[in-house]
Design a protein that fits this description.
CATH topology of the largest domain: Enolase-like, domain 1
Strand content: 15-25%
Largest sheet: 5 strands, mixed
CATH architecture of the largest domain: 2-Layer Sandwich
Oligomer: single chain
Structural class: alpha+beta
CATH class of the largest domain: Alpha Beta
Strand order of the largest sheet: 1-9-10-12-11
Number of domains: 3
């Protein structure tokens, strides 16, 4: 297999080639310290505030079109830019310094005061501008969910999001290069020229970054270096570096493995590869489980969802990871790979203890397999957190059962935030199994929670609060099934 020792990407229309790359150097550090492009700001250094938002342009799965995605530069490792185009606030100016329509709209609508957060807002709006030609208020709010402002409030920024479409046709101004507009076909061609089948291996004086091109090469690399840090979106690993100052060596990146970026349906099962981002995976999950949509819309921000992978969230194994209660409730399995060997485990069997998974040295999660629902399957997911948007759950409940003549069968209740791992509430399941969802059944299930969990108190919630909420979510399920509207989403968004 050929090996390449340079990271290659475009920035502001110019090809950048880098060798001797620090494996954990962030895009934000590169922009501000190496390129002295200070328009991109550092606010939180953990992907929460959006001040550092940039846009990555990449080839789509077919290789014939483009994806335009906002990401957080503060936790995006520099070497992961390989094969992409990086756009910053400096990239948007047109000939003669003419403002991009998004920038002009922010000026016209007075969407900036101190200006510190403004470049991040502009880049999030630019990504929206290129991906949605007529967003409604909900779509605008979703696009801006990862950007925080402490000056203006958000009304003028939302007004700018609406005005930007009045200032230019959406097909223009993808980026500016050498003072001239660049069309989509030009970008496709120059990004296609960067794609190859070589394994990428770059290093600085002490540490190494590997980006295999195939899943077989990835499996071989993990066998050779089983203690390596496996990197997907970096939305958690990035914090190990920016907040905990961990020295990671080596780093093995899966983002160039095309086989892992596949979503397919086979044998009544949705298979999602380890390289599929949340942005790509969620629509497929919601297509089959539409009642999961509320939770997914409240899960992280667009820049996080654009980088993070669904399998990465599963493999991380946090007890407050939002995907696992829903996935565990519907019977998801993980497919593990070690060398040429594969094995499958139910998701609940994968988690052994806090941050301990059933993984052998050199083994990794290759994909997850999500059973598709039958016509009488009921699936719900309820999230409780301090903030509406972009907040980690205090308690999250995933529910699935088959409704057979008003009787619940094959009941599965999976809770996050209640134990050292996401775990099923087996006693509460037994209280509901084979019964109607009447007051007596629900009361018995709520009482059974005390036998299922002994929650802890922490910064997100007290044990008492968690215990009460976990019971009340079962009551919420009953209200849902009775036809009452219990969604909080409609109260969290302006129309």
């Amino acid at each position: 297999m050929p090996v390449r020792d340079r990271v290659r990407f475009f920035m502001n229309g110019e090809l950048v080639e880098l060798a001797d790359v620090d494996p954990t150097r962030t895009v934000l550090q590169y922009l501000r310290e190496d390129c002295v492009q200070t328009g991109t700001k550092e606010g939180c250094a953990e992907g929460d505030c959006g001040a550092c938002t940039v846009v990555l342009v990449a080839l789509d799965a077919a290789g014939t079109g483009l994806t335009v995605r906002a990401v957080n530069a503060c936790i995006q490792f520099l070497a992961t830019l390989d094969g992409k185009e990086l756009l910053t606030i400096e990239s948007l100016a047109g000939p003669g310094g003419q403002l991009h329509p998004v920038q002009q709209a922010m000026v016209d609508e007075h969407g900036s005061q101190c200006g510190f957060c403004t470049p991040g807002f502009v880049m999030s709006l630019f990504a929206l501008f290129k991906s949605d030609s007529a967003p409604d208020r909900v779509a605008i709010d979703n696009a801006l969910a990862g950007n925080l402002c402490r000056c203006t409030g958000y009304r003028p920024i939302v007004a700018a999001a609406r005005r930007m479409y009045e200032l230019a046709d959406n097909s223009s101004w993808l980026t500016a290069s050498a003072g001239a507009n660049v069309g989509e076909s030009d970008l496709v061609a120059r990004l296609a020229a960067l794609q190859d089948d070589a394994d990428l291996v770059v290093a600085d004086a002490d540490r190494q970054f590997l980006a295999p091109a195939t899943v077989d090469a990835l499996a071989a690399a993990m066998l050779e270096q089983p203690s390596a840090t496996l990197l997907a979106g970096g939305t958690d690993v990035g914090l190990w570096v920016t907040k905990e100052y961990r020295d990671l060596d080596p780093v093995i990146y899966i983002g160039r493995v095309r086989e892992l970026a596949v979503i397919r349906v086979a044998d009544s099962t949705l298979h999602i590869g380890a390289g599929v981002t949340l942005t790509e995976a969620v629509p497929h999950l919601v297509e089959h489980y539409p009642d999961f949509e509320e939770m997914f819309l409240r899960w992280a921000s667009p820049p996080i969802r654009n980088a993070a992978t669904l399998v990465g969230n599963v493999a991380n194994g946090s007890p407050i990871g939002d995907s696992m209660p829903a996935l565990m409730a519907v019977g998801t399995e993980v497919v593990l790979r070690k060398g040429s060997r594969r094995r499958s485990l139910p998701l609940e069997a994968f988690y052994v203890d806090y941050q301990v998974k059933d993984l052998e040295p050199g083994e990794f999660v290759e994909r997850i397999s999500v059973p598709l629902p039958t016509g009488n399957t009921v699936a719900r997911c309820y999230k409780v957190s301090k903030r509406f948007d972009q907040d980690i759950s205090a308690v999250c409940l995933g529910v699935s059962f088959v409704l057979d003549d008003a009787v619940a069968r094959n009941v599965r209740l999976a809770y996050g935030g209640m134990a050292a791992t996401v775990r099923r509430a087996t006693n509460a399941e037994q209280a509901i199994e084979g019964r109607r969802l009447n007051d007596a059944t629900i009361a018995a299930a709520m009482d059974a929670i005390d036998r299922d969990f002994d929650p802890i108190s922490d910064m997100r919630a007290t044990a008492t609060y968690r215990r009460e909420i976990s019971k009340n979510l079962i009551k919420r399920l009953q209200l849902d099934m009775s036809g009452k509207t219990t969604s909080v989403y409609r109260y969290g968004r302006a129309s």
